[in-house]
């Protein structure tokens, strides 16, 4: 298992946190997700054989947010 921190711009409320959390939890291999509105981050534990931070970032961006430091 690996852990990554995604820096997400555009989250403004608890609904945004919920939306990003659901996107990330739907990835195969993701075992833990913590999204922080205050820090504008998502901390994700995942199986590197099943997904990548780049794939997760693209899905978040497809929902209208911006991910930095991919």
TrEMBL record:
The keyword Transit peptide does not apply. Keywords: Metal-binding. GO terms for molecular function: metal ion binding. CDD domains: HMA. The keyword Metal-binding applies. This is HMA domain-containing protein. It comes from hydrothermal vent metagenome. Pfam families: HMA. Residues 2-68 form the HMA domain.
């Amino acid at each position: 298992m690996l852990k990554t921190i995604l820096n997400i711009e555009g989250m403004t409320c608890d609904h945004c946190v919920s939306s990003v959390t659901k996107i990330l939890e739907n990835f195969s291999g993701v075992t833990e997700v913590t999204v922080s509105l205050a820090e504008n981050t998502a901390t994700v534990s995942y199986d590197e054989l099943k997904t990548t931070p780049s794939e997760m970032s693209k899905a978040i961006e497809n929902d209208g947010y911006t991910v930095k430091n991919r």
